[in-house]
Design goal:
With 114 residues, the protein is α+β, with helices and mostly antiparallel strands. It is built from two helices and six strands, in the order αββββββα. The protein is 19% helix and 40% strand.
Length: 114
Amino acid sequence: MRQTVVIDFIMLYARTAINQRKYPRHKVLKEGRIVSSGMNGAINVTIRDLSVGGARIQLPSYIAIPEDFSLLVTSENLLYPAVAKWRNGEASGISFIGEPYRGSVLRYINEPGV
């Protein structure tokens, strides 16, 4: 009985520690593209988690993320100004640094990405 209580406490603590973020994040599976004025084209990414403050994206580890970029969420046709915060293999955490906006996104949606 005591062991069960200890395990339950540990699991509850782990869930609480993970979810102590500024904004709650939501697991998603969406197409996205990294776009930047300094790039010709776009970088295809998969959005795995999304919140008001940022996202966790997946892209090949050999592709560098530019310093100044926007994340295009293709299903929403919205661009989110962003900066990369961390990288671990194919996963990368980004923070949004401005309000999303509708820019000229058609060229990024219709052209093939990297």
